[in-house]
Amino acid sequence: MDWKRFGFIALIIIVLFSVVVMIGQAKQPPLLIVTSMLATTIAVATPLTLGALSGVFCERAGVVNIGIEGMMLTAAFFGWLGGIYMFHIFQLPPSVSIVLGVFFAILTGALMALLHAVLSITFKVDQIIGGTVINILAVGLTGFLNRQLFFGSTSVFEGSVPSSPGVLPTVHIPITELFASICNSSAACLQNVQAINRVFDQKPIAMGAILLVFLSHYILFNTRWGLRTRAVGEHPQAADTVGINVIFMRYANVLIGGMFAGLAGAYFTIESVPSFEPLLTNGRGFISLAAMIFGNWTPIGAWAASLVFGASQAMLINMQIFRDVIPPAWSFLQESYIVGLTPYILTMFILTGIIGRTTPPAADGIPYEK
Amino acid sequence: MKKLYFVMALLIVASMILSACGAGAPTAADCAKEEVFCVGLVTDVGKINDKSFNQSAWEGVQKSNTDGVADVVQFIETADAKDYAKNIAQFGDAGYDVIVTVGFGLGEATAAAGLTYPDVKFIGVDQFQAWQFTEDTADDSANVTGLGFPEDNAGFLVGALAAMMSESHKIGAVCGTDVVPPVWRFGEGYKAGAAYADGMNATTTEVFVVYHSDVGFDKTFTDPEWGAQTAKSMMDQGADAIFGCGGLTGNGAITAAAQAGKYAIGVDADQYLTLPEAAPRMLSSAMKLITPGVAELIAAAKDGSITAGNFTGTAGYAPYHDLDGEVSAEIKTAMEDINAGLLDGSIKTGVSPVKP
Q: Which of A31, A291, A319, B346 sits 20 to 30 Å CA-CA off A99?
C-alpha cells in the first residue's frame, strides 16, 4: 500500500472540509455541514470512481482507454432509452424498466468497449486514436439518435420526450432507527444521528461503486485472473511464454472496463436525473482518467482520488451556499473558478511526482505482436 | 495497415454524418402583396408544441391572427442551430412583414437578418438586441426588436412563494452562471422576494442561491447532474423548496427536489407541462409571459408604433397545478397582491440589471 499517497489524499479532503466548516459554522452546525458534504462527495465521486475502475482494468491489461467519456455517454443514452422503451412501448412496470435500463447501459458500455478492443487489440490501431474515435462517435451517435427519436418528423413519441420510468430509489440504511434508543429522546442527539444517517443513504449505483472498488482490488491483486491481467499489461511476451492467452486477457479486461463505464453512464440517466441531454457527461470520463493516474492505477487509489474530486465539488457547492458569511480575508473563495481548480492543480502536483511517482503498466498502450 | 486507415476514416466520417440534419419549408402565400400582413415564426431547435418558448410564442402569433392583426401566419421548426439564418431567410424571401424568432440562440442570426431584410420587422423573443456591426450606430438594425422580460420580477414572485410555503424556513435556488444577466436577475430576484415575504410575515428565511459559475460557459446550462447534486446538498441542509433556474442544470435540480418530495419551482415557462418527472411536486414556475408580449409587438409592428431595440414584456408565475390544495388561501391572495404590486411598480425588486 502506498500510504504516503493515501495520507496526502486524506489531508486534502480534510483541508477542503475544514475550510467549509470554518466558514459555514456561522450558518449551520458543523456536523450537518460535514455529513452533507460527505453525502455529496460520495454521490459526485460515483461516476468518476466507476470510470476510473474502467480505466484500471483496461490499462492494467495494457490497453490505454481514453474513450471512457464516450462509453459513459453512449451508455447513459441507451440505458435511459432502453428504460423508456420498456416502460412506454412494452408497458413494463417502472421498477422493471429501470433495472433493465441499467442492464442496457452496461451492455452498451461493453459494446463500445468491444469496438475499442477490436480496433486496438486486433487491428493494433494507435489506442489514443481508437479512444478518440469512441468519444467522437458517442457524441454524434447519441446527439443524432436523441434528435431523431424524439424530435424527428417520424418520431415514435411524436415530437416530445416521454416521461422516463424514473430513477433508482435511495436505499435507506436504518442508522437512525438503530441508534435512536441511545439518544434517550433528546432531540438534538436525534438530529445528529439523522445527519450522520444521510451520509449512508445513498443510491444503489453509488453504493455498488464502493463495493466494486474493493472487489476490483481483490480480483486484481489476489486472484489468478488479476495476476494474469497484470502480467499481460506489464510484459505480454513473458505472459505468452508461460501460456497466458494475451489477446483473450486483453479483450476480456477491456470488456469488463466497458461494463464499468456503462454502469457509470447509468448513474447519470437512471440514478441521478431521469433525463438525457446531449453531452451530459461533461468531461467526467476524462476526470476519471486523471483519478486513475492520481491513484497510480490501483482501484482503491483511484477511488480515493475520485473522492478528492467529489470533495472539491462539495466544497464548491457549499462555498456558494455560505457565500454571504465568507470573511473578507477569504473573499477569493467567492470566486468559484478558483475553488473549482483544486482537483486539477492537485492532479498536476501528483504528476510531477512530489508524493511519489505514478507508474503506468509497462506495456500500457503497446499492441501485442508475437 | 491501409485497410485500417480506411476503417478509421469510415468511422470518423460516419460519426460526422450523423450530426447533420434538415428543416421543413413554409407554404408560399400572397405575402409579397402590400395589403396582406404576414407573420412568420422561426422556432429555436425543437418542436412548435414544446409546451415552452416555441409554443408560447406561436400562441402569441396565432392570437394576432384571431385578433385580425395578421392575415397569414406560418412557422418553421428549426432542427439544427446551423439552420437559423436559412429558416429566417425563407420568410424574408417570401415577403413576410413580421418575422418572430424564438429564443436567445437566434439573437445574432436575427440581427444579421435585420440588415438583409430592411423592410421586414423582426421580433426576437427572449433576445437582447443591441448588436453593433459597425462603428456607426446608425447602421444598426432599426427594424429588430428584442422582447425581454423582467426576470427579477419572476424570481421575486417565486422567491416570495417559496418563503411562504417553506416549513423549515430554508429555501434554495440552483442557477446557471451569474455572468448571464437574466440568470443573475432570476437568482437575486428570488432572494429579494423571499426577503419581502419575510417582511410581510415576520419570518426569517434562509436562502441558498448557487450559480454554476465554476465551469466553462458551454457547460453551465447543460449539467443536470450537477444541478441535482447541488439541490440535494441544499436539501441535506434543510431546504424544502428548490428553484431551478438555468436550462438543463436547473431541470436537474427541479427533478431532484421533486424526487425528494420537496417543493420544486420551474423557470421561463410553466415547467409543470415540460418536466413530467417533476410535475407532481411542481409548486409553480417563474414565467416569462411570452404569448401576450408577442401579440402586443405584432400589433405594434402593424400600426407602426414598434421601436427597434429592447422591449420589456411582463413576468408572472405559473399555476400551482397538483399542489393547489397545499397552498393556503392567504398565500394565494398574497401572491396576487405581490404580482399586482410588481406590475404597477409599487413593489420594486431592487435587483441591479447585471452582477455588479
A: A291
Largest CA distance in chain A: 71
**Does residue B206 sit at the A interface (CB-CB below 8 Å)?**
yes
Global pTM value: 0.84
Contact between B211 and A320 using a beta-carbon 8 Å cutoff:
yes
In a domain? residue A101: yes
Q: How many other C-beta atoms can be found within 10 angstroms of the C-beta atom of residue B48?
A: 16
Mutate to test the interface with B, among A320, A322, A325 (most CBs of B within 10 A): A320
In a domain, A360, yes or no: no
- By mean pLDDT, which of A70-74, A335-339, B316-320 is the weakest? A335-339
- What pLDDT is attached to residue B26? 42
Whether the Cβ atoms of residue B147 and residue B293 lie closer than 8 Å to each other = yes
> Cα-flanking dihedrals φ and ψ of residue B97, to 5°?
-90, -35
pLDDT at position B54: 87
More confident residue, A229 or A172: A229
Residue B175 belongs to domain spanning: 151-268+320-344
Residue B4 pLDDT exceeds 80: no
Grid coordinates belonging to B289: 409571459
Task: Report the first-to-last Cα separation within chain A, whole angstroms.
Answer: 34
Task: Return the CATH number at B73.
Answer: 3.40.50.2300
Cross-chain Cβ contact B229/A40 below 8 Å: yes
Task: Give the count of domains, chain B.
Answer: 2
Q: Does position B344 have pLDDT exceeding 90, yes or no?
A: yes
pLDDT at residue number B336: 95
More confident residue, A198 or B264: B264
**Interface touch A273/B209, C-beta < 8 Å:** no
Structural domain of A77: 44-157+203-304
CB contact under 8 A, B215 and A340: yes
Scanning every residue of chain A, which has its alpha carbon at the shortest distance from the alpha carbon of B220? A282
Q: Does B273 touch chain A (CB under 8 A)?
A: no
Q: Is residue A121 part of a domain?
A: yes
Question: Which of helix, strand or coil describes residue A185?
Answer: coil
The whole-number pLDDT of residue B14 equals 61
Q: Quote the pLDDT of residue A5.
A: 82
| Interchain CB contacts (distance < 8 Å): A and B | 140
| Within-domain flag for A351 | no
Which chain B residues in 174-193 lie under 8 Å from chain A, judged by CB atoms? none
Residue B15 and residue A320: Cβ atoms within 8 Å? no
Q: Which pLDDT does position A358 carry in this prediction?
A: 78
pLDDT at B17 over 60: no
The answer to whether A216 contacts chain B (CB < 8 Å) is no
On the question of pLDDT at B23 being above 50, the answer is no
B251 touches chain A (CB under 8 A): yes
Cα–Cα distance for residue pair A274/A281, rounded to 1 Å = 14
Q: Search chain B and give the residue with CA nearest A24.
A: B237
Q: How confident is the model at residue B22 (pLDDT cuts 50, 70, 90)?
A: very low
d(CA A175, CA A79): 32
Indicate if the pLDDT at residue A257 is higher than 90: yes
Residue B309 within a domain: yes
State the Cα–Cα distance between residues A272 and A76, nearest whole angstrom: 11
What does the alpha-carbon distance between residue A298 and residue A303 come to, in Å, rounded to a whole number? 9
How large is the ipTM?
A: 0.86
